[in-house]
Amino acid sequence: MTVIRSPLFSPAVLLLGIAAMFTFDGNGIAWFWADQPQGAFILLAASTGLWVLVLRSVRKAHTAKD
Fold this sequence. Notes:
Elements: H1 9-19, E1 22-25, E2 28-31, H2 37-65
Antiparallel strand pairs: 1-2
Helix pairs in contact: 1-2
């Protein structure tokens, strides 16, 4: 099995994780971006774009080997 590494994988995971962050306080669990959902949307859109590029590069590498 060949492992194909993309330099965009780490930023894609990081942006997705930041968009889905939660905070823990005395009131319980709250979504980190509750006051600014547009910030989370921007991070999610950027992460989606990076994931598309990651999957394209993996597919391109697989077709090049065949």
